[in-house]
Amino acid sequence: MGPVQPGHEGPLPLAGRATELAALDEVAEEVLAGQTRVVQLAGNAGMGKSALLHHWLDGVRRFRDVRVRCHRLRRDFAFGTVRRLLHPLVAAAGEQERRTLLEGVGDTVPRILDPEGPWGGDPEAYADAAETLAGLDRLAFRLARREPLLLAVDDLQWIDPPSLRWLAHLVHRADTHPILVAVTTRTGERPAPGDLYDALVHPAACRTLNLEPLGPADVARLVALEFGEPRPDPSFCAACHAATDGHPLFLRALLCDARRGGVRPTGEDRDRIRSFGLPTLLREVRHRVGQGSPAVAELARGLAVLGDGTPWPLLAAYCGTGEAVVRSAGAELHALGLLGAGDEPRFVHRVVREAVLAEWTPQEVGAAHANAAQVLHLSGRPDEEVAAHVMAAGTVSGDWPMAVLRRAAGEALRRGAPETAVTYLRHAVFQPATPAEHARVLLELAVAASHYDTGLAVSYSTAALENLTDDAARSKAVAVLACSQLMSRGGPAGSPDLARLATELSARTGAAAGDRETLLRMRALIEWLRFERPSVRVTARTEEHAAVGPDVHTPGERQLLAVRAFAALRAGEPADRVTDLVDRAQANAPALSHDLFPLHYFVARSLLYLDDLDAADDLCGRLLDGTKDRGMALLASSLMVYRAAVELRRGHVARAAAVARTAAERPHAHGEPPYRMTLDTITIDILLAQGDLEGAERLAALHTAVDSAEPSWEWPRFLLSLASLRSAQGDHRGALTLLRESGRHFEAAGVASPAIGPWRSRAAAVSLRLGYGRDARVLAEEELERARRCRIPRTIGVALHAVGRATEGTRGLELVAEAVSVLEQTPAELELARALHTFGRALLRRGDKPGARTALRRGLELAARCGASAPARSLQQQLHEAGGRTVGPCFLTAGEERVAALAADGWSNKQIAEHLHVSLRTVETHLTAAYRKLGIGGRHALAEALKSVACLVPSRR
């Protein structure tokens, strides 16, 4: 639609888009048939994308459509497009239906849809990005179940990033929901982040229609309509096509301009077309604005700055006049063909806005946005609206702009949009303020960035420390720095200044007899660094000031106690002493935050290696709940890695695989997920248990080139798993070398406990394969001695198993039997299965076939239940040699197996019931039993679990 069409009451009819309309109809039919789809209309500005989209939307049937147009000034409104898409649908529902729609979507989604609404929950709570996306998905699915849903987004290139993230998330998770997302995009302009845009318009789910210029026949049709001549001269039409190259917007502007200039569509006037054309468009708009009163020009400038849809009272405030005056000016603009019909002020085309703004210098545009920001601020508009103009203006005088930007950042964080919060705070840094105020903004930037980008968080926290003078604030900055470096690839070794910062702050606080809490927190960070990097040293004076008595009350005391608990565990001290320290550290522990780092970090690690896995799992669940309230996406991802470690520690390979896959697939805005090496180490152990040596090798190859000159704490643990892989591949000498290298790193870090670094028992097993029996006994006995000192039953059982394997005769059998007895009292089911394997083989060598079959059968059941197919196959083969019989796949019943296999292939419960001629209840019962037996949480993990346990299990004979 052109900006000036006085000869027509509405836009000219659509021309030359029959192919595109047919394609749009085809996509709509695909959605109605059960596919979630995206359709993109792409083309240069003025190519008619919006006109085509709305023309089609006006005629499409059987969909509930919602249309929004994105604007430049709203790109930083976190979830602003989502709100405009979904809020009208929720608001139109009745009270009962609205409650149903919003049930279970979380506290953040209602606040996104209506920030002013009377929603429950803590308004200051921070949203978890993943949970917010999932809640919006649930809402969209419910809406689509009521009526096929069509979400139309015009000018996608200006969408806010959180809304783009949700749309990309939605279309790849909606499966068979009848949802169609229709977008228009300018050629050459992509919304940010680009990877999310690529995911949204990926050919697998999206059909892209590139709009080309109109052909000569379509140009002739528009010429006829514009001039009211059924048969315009062909040469005239050809001249119009040549002048505009068939560009719809400029063609219509040219035709309107020519008709107003007295040109007729004849052969005689065809040469006059050359005097019109593209350069006349902006001049025509400015000319039209100049034809009106001064109030018209002021209104045009105000609407150009504030944007389409600005309420009349705000326009009046900006123009410095009354509402009646601006409404009258609006009527004049409409009569001039520049303002659309309706009560809401809106230019007929974005080119009008561009023409108005083109009259100003950049400095004048900035001043206009500064004026708009002040008007909106004084009118009580939401902070994000004010902030958009503050950012467009650049520097704005006064104290309020920085406050507005900081509040807008806080609101963005509460909506689960930390990238948007960082955008606001980056502009806040450039507002007038003292160095101390700027430093506080940098600290807020560090906190916001730490939710999704540890590199940014490190940069901002380092910059903040240059001007922060308050010790408590400096303590927080150092904590953010430490926490961010911990989750970065390569660990904390990348910043040698962290130890100096913590030591200096600790010494200064202690010397001044100042804040003891700050002193304790810095001491906790220093001791954490000593574990991470043995080269870190502190003075004895700091040690004295950081003493913790028998009564622990403050967070700082708990932090320090948690570090010392893990230090005691690492040193191999008795488990009861370590448990006492851990219990004291976590008693009434406050909520998760940067200020508490590394309290929960070391409590969690201690519980894991103490084998208190129920407490570890409970702590993980509570901390995950805490991240949901604070939008800490990276911390949530790290906790998923921890949960995978807990499941693997239990021996539940299938569950660990499902959790590890979830952790790896969680969306990360920048870089790799936290603890990448730990996650890959866990996955290598899982793949080895599943017998997938090729997959384990591919994963190990990603890390074997890591510089280990001063490695992170993850490195020796990775070497243990790499050694297991080399041994499984038959390279026992290479495995032994890796195990000794791992032991060297553990000892350099002061790790004496075999609960953390069981390299000796593993080296003993490899030594036996190489024929080094004496070396194997020495290594195994040394580990057993250390294990008895630390008094952790699993560790003792594993060491007993190693010594028993290395000891011949009756004594060896007795030691393995003792290992089985000890491991039976632990949650280590897979370790027990391995010990039973050794025990069964030993009994078989003595000729006790019944006893061997009993041990091997039990071990096989445990391995199958754990989802450890590689040990299960070995046990099954050994059982066969002992004369044991095997029946049926896995340990599922025939009915459970059939139902599980179909579900793993993507069949719905209803389809399975119809196919097997059973009731829906029977299908649900079989699936529930299969989940329990396979040790998985649901249908999503079925395929992997069935693959993992594709072995035979013993009969009961």
Defining key terms:
disordered N terminus; two-stranded antiparallel ribbon; disordered C terminus; single chain; mainly alpha; 47 helices; 7 strands; about 950 residues; five-stranded parallel beta sheet
Which residue ranges are poorly predicted, with pLDDT under 50 across at least 5 consecutive positions? Answer: 1-10, 119-126, 490-496, 510-514, 536-546, 951-957
Helix content: 55-70%
Instruction: Round the mean pLDDT to the nearest integer and report it.
Output: 82
Which percent band covers the strand fraction? under 5%
Q: What would you call the structural class?
A: mainly alpha
Distance between the termini: 83 Å
Strand sequence of the main sheet, in spatial order? 2-3-4-1-5
Overall strand count = 7
Radius of gyration: 35 Å
Number of helices: 47
Biggest sheet layout: 5 strands, parallel
Shape: elongated
Short description:
This protein has 957 residues and is mostly helical.
Describe the structure.
There is one protein chain. With 957 residues, the chain is mostly helical. Helix content is 63%, strand content 4%. It is built from 47 helices and 7 strands. The chain has a 5-stranded parallel β-sheet with strand order 2-3-4-1-5, with helices on both faces. It has a two-stranded antiparallel ribbon with strand order 6-7. Helix 7 (161-171) links the parallel strand 3 and strand 4. Helix 10 crosses helix 11 (248-260). The longest helix is centred in the first third of the chain and has 18 residues, at 129-146. It is elongated and about 115 Å long. It starts with 17 loop residues before the first helix and ends with a strand.
